[in-house]
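Narrative of accomplishments. A recurring question from our advisory board has been how the design workflow behaves on a single, concrete structure rather than in aggregate. To address it, we present the structure tokens for one chain from the evaluation set, followed by the sequence designed for it. No filtering or post-editing was applied between the two.
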């Protein structure tokens, strides 16, 4: 997988999450990104990013290439997303994606 493609995957993933992490209600201000970190020094072999938003939501993700340089090479992604529902309950979804598919787990934190 080349560096440009991996950069595009990370960029699209971040944009989708930032746009869809919290519904915008006209009477409420749009959440603002308070902290954003992106580590791409090891691309195309791996990346890491995380952010925190003013509405309390956050996301952390890291991806790496397993078996690089072989026909079995695959992107493996691990991450988590946290958000508050309209009643103030905190939830966390953890996920893993790789050759065996996409697995998620959602739990109520508080």
């Amino acid at each position: 997988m080349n560096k440009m493609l991996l950069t595009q995957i990370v960029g699209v993933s971040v944009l989708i999450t930032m746009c869809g992490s919290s519904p915008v209600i006209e009477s409420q201000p749009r959440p603002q990104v308070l902290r954003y970190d992106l580590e791409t020094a090891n691309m195309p072999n791996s990346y890491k990013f995380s952010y925190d938003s003013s509405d309390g939501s956050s996301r952390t993700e890291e991806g790496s290439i397993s078996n690089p340089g072989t026909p079995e090479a695959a992107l493996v992604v691990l991450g988590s997303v946290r958000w508050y529902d309209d009643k103030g309950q905190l939830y966390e979804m953890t996920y893993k994606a790789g050759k065996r598919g996409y697995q998620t787990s959602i739990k109520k934190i508080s």
